[in-house]
Design a protein that fits this description.
This protein is an alpha+beta fold. The protein folds into 3 domains: 4-49, no CATH class; 72-143, no CATH class; 153-262, no CATH class. It has 4 helices and 14 strands. It has a 7-stranded antiparallel beta sheet with strand order 6-5-4-3-2-1-14, covered by helices on one side. A 7-stranded antiparallel beta sheet has the order 7-8-9-10-11-12-13.
Length: 272
């Protein structure tokens, strides 16, 4: 009994220190989210962060945050090896594969594609440049979601809450401006974000090319490498024209056809 006072003092002391530590963590996280949503540090009274922007920023922070800005990684997707390197001056993506005994490497640097075959640069037609640029961009885009959701051409809207398999999710809808929105600027995306963790557990998109399509993806087997989260996805197909918002209900009812698995393998941090 006589130790109660000293024990209580010790507990109180620990509690104060712990609260201070947690407050610092929350402040740091809040500052990072604000930095992502407002990279130019515009005064908040002239550039308020709406709910969609806030959710985008929080989701990016949960998946990797500022680490994306200088990320240099390699990974394997299906039968090819990829790298991506982000810097203050831009980005460099590469993909290396083999065909008919030859090594083919595409290098995409700040939007300009170069193809090398067995170490020699080869010329591609404008059509092929667009084709292979989009293919490389697409793989890195999905592998590093949600990093690119902060790009200037992205339009985000908050679509409320829903429930998938007994869990609540915030709904984030994404569209793109034609300017700087890429060749697929007419595509639409939807993300279902866990309200506490801010992790994307489900996503969907529609596209217009090749007669159009609708896809729904369920994340699994997450791995965090060098502070950045990478996720694999079960890729489902839905009939063309299906509204993205209806896909979770169709998924729960077992009415979506599994099309493929999107697996990012052998993820490694690369040296400078």
């Amino acid at each position: 009994m006589k130790y109660y006072i000293s024990v209580l003092c010790l507990v109180a002391s620990i509690g104060i220190a712990s609260c201070g530590s947690e407050k610092n963590k929350e402040t740091s996280s809040s500052q990072e989210i604000e930095s992502i949503a407002n990279p130019k540090n515009t005064p908040l009274e002239t550039a308020p962060m709406d709910k969609a922007d806030s959710l985008v920023a929080a989701t990016i922070a949960a998946h990797g945050g500022k680490r994306y800005d200088t990320a240099h990684y390699g990974f394997r997707f299906r039968d090819k090896k990829y790298t991506f390197h982000n810097t203050n001056s831009g980005f460099t993506y590469t993909v290396t594969g083999h065909k008919e005994g030859k090594t083919i490497k595409d290098i995409l640097q700040n939007g300009t594609l170069t193809r090398m075959v067995d170490g020699d640069t080869v010329q591609l037609s404008p059509k092929d440049v667009a084709k292979y640029t989009e293919a490389l961009n697409s793989v890195v885009y999905f592998a590093t979601l949600p990093h690119k959701l902060k790009d200037p051409a992205v339009n985000a809207s908050y679509e409320g809450l829903t429930t998938i398999k007994g869990k609540d999710y915030q709904i984030l809808a994404i569209s793109f401006d034609q300017k700087d929105g890429g060749v697929d600027h007419e595509d639409h995306f939807m993300y279902w974000v866990h309200p506490q963790t801010k992790i994307i557990d489900y996503m969907a998109y529609d596209y217009e090319t090749n007669d159009g399509g609708v896809r729904f993806r369920s994340a699994y087997d997450p791995q965090t490498v060098g502070g950045i989260r990478f996720q694999d996805y079960v890729n489902y197909e839905a009939p063309v024209g299906t509204p993205l918002k209806e896909l979770p209900a169709l998924y729960e009812a077992g009415k979506l056809k599994e099309l493929s698995r999107i697996e990012t393998e052998e993820v490694t941090v690369l040296e400078e």
